[in-house]
TrEMBL record:
Residues 3-134 form the EVE domain. InterPro entries: 5hmC_binding, EVE_domain, PUA-like_sf, THYN1-like_EVE. It holds the Pfam family EVE. It comes from Cereibacter sphaeroides (strain ATCC 17023 / DSM 158 / JCM 6121 / CCUG 31486 / LMG 2827 / NBRC 12203 / NCIMB 8253 / ATH 2.4.1.). This is EVE domain-containing protein. It comes from the Bacteria.
Length: 137
């Protein structure tokens, strides 16, 4: 199982909206970056990801699971853009802020720290465990 991080502005798509979609999940649409798209193309069913509120809050708030493989993005007119479907798994008992992530030496190499603009990014197993620990899981 690979691990990922999905960034969303909470005023556009929030953790609460993701949770409300239930087991069927929701397409992770609107990604218009080739590197982020390629990450979604590499995802497998059951892969886990952090749900990260960007711009407002700037914190990891929950865990999602890939429940639908990469397919054409229904919001795109261009066939180059794909998306996966994700469903909410569980909230983090304690959201993990970007400030706390940057302050944690074990996360110094995390893509969120080194390339903060990438909307869909890989997370190493060690980074996954560290953020889960920081979030109370």
């Amino acid at each position: 199982m690979a691990c990922w991080l999905f960034k969303s502005e909470p005023d556009a798509w929030s953790w609460d909206q993701q949770v409300a979609k239930g087991a069927e999940g929701e397409e992770w649409t609107g990604v218009r970056n080739y590197q982020a798209r390629n990450h979604m193309r590499a995802m497998q069913l059951g892969d886990r990801g952090f749900f990260y509120h960007s711009n407002i809050g700037k914190e990891v708030v929950g865990i999602v699971e890939v429940c639908g493989l990469s397919a054409p993005d229904s919001t795109a007119d261009d066939p180059r853009w794909d998306c996966v479907t994700v469903r909410a798994v569980e909230p983090l008992p304690k959201p993990v802020t970007l400030e706390a992530i940057k302050a944690e030496p074990r996360l110094a190499g995390m893509v969120l720290v080194t390339n903060s603009r990438l909307s869909v990014q890989p997370v190493s197993e060690a980074e996954w465990r560290t953020i889960c620990e920081m979030g109370g899981l």
